[in-house]
Amino acid sequence: MLDKSRSKELFKKAQNFIPGGVNSPVRAFKAVGGDPIFIKSAKGAYMYDEDDNRYIDLINSWGPMILGHGNGAIEAAVADALKSSLSFGAPTSKEIEIAELITHMVPSIEKVRMVNSGTEATMSAIRLARGFTGRDKILKFEGCYHGHGDSFLIAAGSGAATMGTPNSPGVTKGTAKDTLTAPFNDLDAVKKIAEQNKGQIAALIVEPVAGNMGCVIPKEGYLQGLREVCDKEGIVLIFDEVMTGFRLSKAGAQGIFGVKPDITTLGKIIGGGMPVGAYGGKKEIMDFVSPQGPVYQAGTLSGNPIAMSAGLMMLHYLNDHDEVYEQIGASGQYLAKEIAKVNTALGKNYTINQLGSMISLFFNEEAVENFDGTKACDTEMFGKYFQGMLNEGVYLPPAQYESWFLSTSLSAEDLDHIVKSHEKVLKNLLA
Ligand code: PMP
To answer: Is 385 designated active site?
Structure first.
């Protein structure tokens, strides 16, 4: 077993001063048992904890570190920006540059507003959709997570599912009644809800490839079907690409599935590791945002020059290097294939959902196409598996309801270490 005594000590202390000892719930390892690991540093594919243990990182800050930790170009851009002050609260040329690049990389985005997190992006996007349509209701999908805005904490995935508080106290009944939910991958359910709420739904918001109930891939024609329902009913289609944006392709999931949303929400990779989010889309809708239009949204640190510099360098790099997606896509395929081989040899047919650099291994032998599929997984087994992998030096997301995120820093040896660890840990668990 690894020595984690310093992490243990820190967690004990943290709980005196920070609720649950962490600043975001899933970090507390509640879903997998044991104490959380406190991280000291990271470089390339590896994270190092306070006890100097090394882990292959399959979280990558929950997505942003697609190029691994300590990317030289991004760090140099940040160091350069530091020379000119940390923040101005006034417009800068970098904000134009990043907005122009985003509209180039994601063609459905004609104008974009920068914010500070994915949560801000989705909250702002639905306010905009409501202001634009003059309607109140929104439709979301069970198991999709769109940040912690009140309207989204209904049948939410990610940490909200893990913590068993999908309907969080503090969300008013008034807010909750305006959020309709449907199962993911079920187009008929959406059609029915749209019919029953004719003229009342402002927005349909979806993770086009879900990552917050584990990785769940849309069925053939599903996203096109959502587009058609929205067109027919005058509903604003929002793709929440906070996770998938710049990860599945330069143009995110929409670039792969060829469906254009009206609004896209972004986060994670767009900040290169700094706290950044964005929402953007059709000009006619975005021009409803203040000060051009009546829908208010603002931010003291929005467009922060340090964050913009990191994000801009990240996006330039991705725009100029198609091989990033080839490489991490190949890593994803390799892991999915090799892990499946191990499972089969051990007599298990666990579902593995993988698209590009997003992967989930589900302890469920049935297909996982929606939240019910994820919820049917053996989460106790996942907890033991997670601890086993951690002990082998592989840091997975600490819940079954999450996707693994790969980075370009993973070497062939790292991938083989993950597969070998998987084999060792699973054999032990099944013995
Ligand atoms: N939308 C999606 C799809 C996400 O995955 C997340 C975060 N995991 C969010 C929104 C919220 O982003 P943030 O945590 O930056 O507020």
So the answer is: no
Residue type, 292: Q
Alpha carbon of 121 to ligand 1 centroid (Å): 9
240 flagged as catalytic: yes
Is the distance from CB of 171 to CB of 274 less than 8 angstroms? no
- Count the domains in the chain: 2
Say yes or no: 42 and 95 in one domain. Answer: no
pLDDT of 99 > 70? The answer is yes
In this predicted structure, the answer to whether residue 166 has a pLDDT above a threshold of 70 is: no
Q: In this predicted complex, what is the ipTM?
A: 0.99
- Tell me the Cα Rg of the chain: 21
Distance (angstroms) between ligand 1 centre and the Cα of 431 equals 38
35 is catalytic: no
Are 260 and 364 contained in the same domain?
Answer: no
How many whole angstroms from 268 Cα to the centroid of ligand 1? 8
Active-site residue, from 46, 145, 317, 350: 145
Do 326 and 316 share a structural domain? no
pLDDT at position 158, please? 74
Domain span at 117: 72-320
Which atom number of ligand 1 is nearest to the Cα of residue 118? 12
User: Residue 150: CB partners within 8 Å, gap ≥ 6?
Assistant: 170, 171, 172, 175
Is the CB of 208 within 6 Å of ligand 1?
no
